[in-house]
Amino acid sequence: MSIGHTLLGLLESGPRHGYDLKRAFDEKFGHDRPLHYGQVYSTMSRLLKNGLVEVDGVEAGGGPERKRYAITEAGITDVEAWLKQPEKPEPYLQSTLYTKVVLALLTGRSAGDLLDTQRAEHLRLMRILTDRKRRGDLSDQLICDHALFHLEADLRWLELTAARLDQLATEVRA
Amino acid sequence: MHQAYTHRVYLVRIVLPMSLGSSSGPASGPLLGASGLRKAFGSTPALDGADFALSPGEVVAVMGPSGSGKSTLLHCLAGIVRPDAGTITYDGNDVTAMNDARRSALRRRDFGFVFQFGQLVPELTCAENVALPLRLDGVRRKDADRAALHWLERLEVDSVARRRPDQISGGQGQRVAVARALVTAPRVVFADEPTGALDSLSGELVMRLFTEAARDTGAAVVLVTHETRVAAYSDREITVRDGRSRDFTLAPAGAR
Amino acid sequence: MTRRLRELALGAKFAFTGGREGWIRTLLTALGVGLGVALLFAAASIPHVNQASSARGDARVPAASGGKKAFERTDSSVLFDMVGTEYRGESIGGLMLRPEGKHPAVPPGLGALPGPGEMAASPALRDLLDSPKGELLRQRLPYKVTASIGDAGLLDPTELFFYAGSSTLTEASGAARTNAFGGEVEKLPLNPVLVALTVVACVVLLLPVIIFIATAVRFGGERRDKRLAALRLVGADTGMTRWIAAGEALAGSALGLLVGTALFLFGRELVGGVRFWSFAAFPADFTPAPALAALVLLAVPLAAVVVTLFTMRSVAVEPLGVVRATKPRRRRVWWRLLLPAAGVAVLALSPRAGVDQGVTDPNLVAIGAILTLTGIATLLPWLVEAAVARLRGGPVAWQLAVRRLQLGGGTASRAVAGITVAVAGAISLQMMTTGIHADFVRTTDQDPSRAQVDVTANFPSGERAQRMIHDFRATKGVQAVIGTVETYATRPGAYTGDQIRPTTSLTVGDCATLAELARVGSCRDGDTFVVHPADDKRLSAWVDQAARPGEAVNLDTTSDYDSSAEPLLWTLPRSARQVLSRPDPMGEHRYGIFATPGAVDVTKLPSAETKAMIKVDRAVPDAAEYVRNTAAVIDPAMHVRTIDNVERDKQYASVQSGLRTGAIATMLLIALSLLVSQIEQLRERRRLLSVLVAFGTRRSSLALSVLWQTAVPVVLGVVLAVAGGTALGVALLDMVGKEVTDWWLFLPLAGTGTVTVLVVTLLSLPPLWRLMRPDGLRTE
Description:
The complex is a heterotrimer.
Chain A: H1 3-11, E1 16-17, H2 18-28, H3 37-49, E2 53-59, E3 66-71, H4 73-84, H5 94-106, H6 111-135, H7 138-163, H8 165-173
Antiparallel strand pairs in A: 1-3, 2-3
Chain B: H1 7-15, H2 20-23, E1 32-41, E2 44-54, E3 59-63, H3 70-77, E4 85-90, E5 93-94, H4 100-109, E6 111-114, H5 126-136, H6 141-154, H7 170-182, E7 188-192, H8 200-217, E8 220-224, H9 228-231, E9 236-241, E10 244-246
Parallel strand pairs in B: 3-8, 3-9, 6-7, 7-8
Antiparallel strand pairs in B: 1-2, 1-4, 4-5, 9-10
Helix pairs in contact in B: 5-6, 5-7, 6-7, 7-8
Chain C: H1 2-17, H2 19-60, E1 78-82, E2 85-87, E3 90-99, E4 118-121, H3 123-130, H4 135-140, E5 144-148, E6 161-165, E7 176-178, H5 192-217, H6 221-233, H7 238-271, H8 290-311, E8 315-318, E9 321-324, H9 334-349, H10 362-389, H11 396-435, H12 437-440, E10 441-443, E11 453-457, H13 462-473, E12 478-490, E13 503-508, H14 511-517, E14 528-532, H15 537-546, E15 552-554, H16 558-561, E16 569-571, E17 577-580, E18 592-595, E19 609-616, H17 623-634, E20 639-642, E21 646-648, H18 650-684, H19 686-694, H20 699-735, H21 746-771
Parallel strand pairs in C: 3-6, 4-5, 13-18, 14-17
Antiparallel strand pairs in C: 1-3, 1-7, 2-3, 4-6, 8-9, 10-21, 11-19, 11-20, 12-13, 12-19, 14-18, 15-16
Helix pairs in contact in C: 1-2, 1-7, 2-5, 2-7, 2-8, 5-10, 5-11, 5-18, 6-7, 7-8, 9-10, 9-20, 10-11, 10-20, 11-18, 11-20, 11-21, 18-21, 20-21
């Protein structure tokens, strides 16, 4: 999962403080692993360095330093490219995909297309495995089948998510 | 247009399956194409502007949630159902403009069908079921029987040739159904959930034998399924959602 | 017991709460059973129809004096003469009436006697007279229609009958006197052969109806079985499902009884005015005999239950679906052969009966016929199975049909059993009616190429007889008239009681006429002849006893037994030549004294009978009607008879026409049940049909397959029917001591059976087209 892309995506709806970003991330994606502050600042400084975000302003006051970040044009392009690029089908993909779907919904992009593209990528791999299975011996078949069943499970999840996009959208935007 | 196919030519095509798939190029456009298909049953729209294109020898999976209109798309493409709007062309001819007799002849000679529950004629033996499409087209009984046996062997079900459909397993039944679909050496085979009633192992076997046989003879396949493992036997898939079709297929590996 | 009743009640409930499908099934059964019940009610009404009609016939005959004493002329007495006629093959009954006092007797159906020149006509006759078709008849019955005859005065609603008023009728002109209406029409006891025929006819016509009811009870059975399977899933055992199914059938048949009663009541109103060949009746005449009606009401629901319980034995309803005929049971042939064999044996061993003597036991005839015919019905499924098992090859449509029959031939042959029984029965009946034909149809020697119409009048005067001949010659369409005046000629003198007075006839006609009747040779007016019947010496000698040239004969025979009357003596001239007779156009030989008008003055003959044989031009339509019209002008009471080659006995004709009516109704019923089961079968295979259509199967291929599927069992059924029907026919004919006269009688009946199949196939094509639409692919 790419925390940088996720934070960038969260900034797309408007400039936020580092503190706000952490809270929004935790609320939407960090159910099992909340983000450390250190992780936020190190990521933000990397993004700053790459010119994907800029500092919108600094709020002085009690507590730690409070910078307000805003996304740059280059940042938006980067998010766009990331969302469009299907993930390489591999195990435990759902947290990344989930993040992508939510971000797409938050930023008004088509989450359905995102899922369909990912489906196509999964199927592409399945085709390759199916072909290998067809040509191979029994051990090849068994190995390929293992992968195929995992891919199939992911695909089922993709389909289920696709079917519930509307429901998810209202929940995310709430 | 296909009156030129004499029975003799049929048999040649059966006995010596040619690989049309390898020789066909994309130059002449799709073998079977459709655009802007609309079809409503009562007030429920089943297709709402679907497009489709099939190249010779290509295996295309049609996927989508149930009720999305994928079966209706297949029925329209096969000339079984007339769409309310839109055009379908097969081999350069407008299918929607054909009368019932011509569409029937088309289905008899150029198309083959596999359905979910085999739909073999229960009174006939498996061999007779396979021979049926040829016999319907006037092929002599002996020739039809020989061709049927050839295809039963090809689908590895020649052992049940003399049995009736209620005496064989579901997987065997589907393979007989595939043999029946391929026996006329069709250019397009339409398969509607061909493994829908089978367990995954029998389903895999049916799909493997089916797609291999289709590829060998150069028959294009339109494969309606909701199972990704079945769709994985295709070259490409299109997704039907709310009566519209979309193609998300990515370029083959390496283009990334 | 109460458990069974509870299951029956549950089934009955399902019949009405089974959703749309359940309703359709119940309705179909009710309609089928209803049709059958209506027919059974109609059959049960026949005794009453006959009885009511003959009672009305009795009530309108002028009372006979009964004995020697003639009726006195009183205030209520009426003079009458039978003036019935025939019009284009239809007979029209009529009485001419002349009241003799102020309060004349009035026949039933009339308020008052019609006045002179007026008539009261039956509604049917009135319609005929008012229509353009009745134009010629109007000339014959020139009376003004002033009243309609009420139902009470008519045999049936289509009867043509009239009462005409007269002011000139006299006893002298041939009229008789009565003082009341109502008596008894002489009825002959029904011939025993006809009794046998009627019994067989009832069996033959009603057995298919019963088979039809049994089939109707099973309408929609396949879908019901699915519901029963669902009941098995929730714990019903096999016995329970059977009784629940029986309950459904019971409810359907009970509803069928209601439908049947309604159909019967409605149908009799409808049928009331229609004539089927010679059969017609008033709606009110259709009243079923109470015992028979009760039998129908009890037997039909009972049969529904029994049939269902019986058929459910071959169906294994499992919780997950229906398995038909778990293992296709091998049909055994021996008991199926036993039934018809027993039937023929019963007929062969029962006492013989002749046409004119002896009695047939109707019960034995019925048992024999029922055994034979039910035997044929049970033999059919075996035959279909055995025959189809050997069939191989053929075109696709044929292959599909044959294979379907090999797997499920039982259903098909059950539907055809009705046709088989009907055709077999009809064949045996046809053989029987044809075999006894000769007894009831006189083939006459008449030669219609020479003359076609024969008019006879008991005229008191030879003068008017001559006028009649003259008038006929002037009638349109008449080519020639052979007219003679005839009277008796007896040998004068006293004869005691046991002596027979030599008697012969005097026939007067011109030379041309006499030449038609005898080989007179040369002839001039004034000649006389003594004519001997050719080839009958004994009769010739008898003629010579009375006809003695030079001697006198008495031409007024009243004086022979009434001593107060004067004999009218006429001397046969000595010049009378003896010649031989030749057959006249009526095929009769006439003999006795022949005289030309110059030899005897016919105007003086007191009781001459005038006969005219009229040769009409066949090219003139209605020539016979013109002749009748002329006759009616001369005297309405004249007998006019067209000469046909055959003359049918009325009793026989009515049995045969009833048979035809019944056979047609039965065939219709069977065609209907075939159609229903055909469509049901198609619906069941809807998805398969859709798949075949997807494969590009031509409609014609499927239609042909449907045709073969019906035709194969029907052809086998017809073959069986021909064999069984012929055997039954031979047995029946043998029983009444007759020979088979025509072995090919089954041809038209077998043809009818075949046509039925074609019609059924044709009618099942529109539903087939509808089912062949791809909708069938859309489920799941």
